[in-house]
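During the no-cost extension, the postdoctoral fellow (Dr. R.K.) reprocessed legacy sequence entries with the updated structure-token encoder. One reprocessed record is reproduced below for audit purposes.
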Amino acid sequence: MNGRTVAEWVWYDTSTLAALARATLAPASALFGAAVARRNRMFDGVPGAAVLPALSVGNVTVGGTGKTPVASWFARQLAARGARPVIILRGYGDDEWRVHQLLTPRVPVVVGADRVHAMVQAQRQGADCAVLDDAFQHRRAHRVADV
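Re-encoded structure tokens follow.
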């Protein structure tokens, strides 16, 4: 396959064999899509999840794509315009929260697996909006926009 992965071959190749592979995988893809859609509906519209207006920064890849600096930039922009933002992140045991403290020293950072609970905590501390770092998959936390 000339260095291409099997997935790339199935997705991009125009051969009859690749088309057959795509057709064979289509039912599994449909089942997976239905399961994800059902799961997403369970989290959409959760009552009480809109604690603060929130902006979620994220993407479909993990690590090293620039989410943290972008989230800090948005928090700085909000603060410069008179808002009292908080940055909320999961905190997977690394020092990502310290990066936010270096980039945005005047913006509080709350680390917590439960983004909704973290927003409640931040609101009690005076925040009026939130920037959620790497939160696309956290659907319980209602947001105004996804970036």
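The radius of gyration is 20 Å. DSSP finds five helices and five strands in the chain. The remaining legacy entries will be reprocessed before the final report is submitted.
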